[in-house]
Design goal:
Blueprint: H1 5-11, H2 23-32, H3 43-62, H4 69-79, H5 84-91, H6 94-118, H7 123-138, H8 142-148, H9 165-182
Helix pairs in contact: 2-3, 3-6, 6-7, 6-8, 7-9
């Protein structure tokens, strides 16, 4: 799929298969960063980045197993104690990893859905949402939780392709934020 086809399909509402690799989504995000344009990121490019980020996080979310009620109950019991052995066992379990990854992806989806309506609007709102979106790309536990959950090899080039995260952070805190202020 070309780098232009994925954003087109996403805009048309065509979904990717649930277990599809995130490699195409990662490539779309890299394209949406417009890395060769060093100084500015106009609203239409920011909207493209928000759209491709939303697609990435929806795909990410669709690949995270959710805990059963029994697993959730066990996790809550293990975390609702001062016994460090039980807490340690819980935070190093697949159930905890599923909970953390699910919370992250759900939050990121919500942020990027909000950003779609905010891009080009009130500067303070858009800047706030982009700032809030940095937590999607700066969570150092993401690869570790994927490994614990048995979903990836625990690396940024694993099944959940996260190699673009540093570039996304640099873009958001650099030319993207500067462009909003300068508009």
């Amino acid at each position: 799929m070309s780098r232009f086809a994925l954003p087109f399909l996403l805009a048309m509402g065509v979904s990717q298969p649930v277990m599809a690799s995130t490699e195409e989504f990662e490539k779309a995000i890299i394209a949406a960063l417009h890395l060769s344009e060093f100084q500015t990121m106009p609203a239409e490019q920011r909207k493209q980045l928000a759209e491709t980020s939303l697609a990435y996080w929806k795909n990410f979310d669709s690949r995270i197993p959710r805990n059963s009620p029994a697993d959730t109950a066990w996790l809550r019991r293990e975390l609702d104690t001062t016994d460090t052995m039980r807490i340690n066992r819980a935070v190093n379990s697949p159930a905890y990893a599923h909970e953390q990854l699910g919370a992250l992806s759900t939050n990121c989806i919500s942020i990027f859905e909000s950003l779609l309506n905010a891009v080009g609007g009130a500067k303070a709102t858009e800047l706030y949402l982009w700032l809030k979106s940095t937590q999607c790309y700066s969570n150092t536990g993401t690869a570790h939780y994927q490994l614990l959950a048995g979903l990836s090899n625990g690396r940024y080039d694993g099944a959940f392709k996260m190699q673009s995260f540093t570039m996304v952070l640099s873009t958001i805190t650099g030319k993207l934020a500067n462009s909003i202020i300068q508009e």
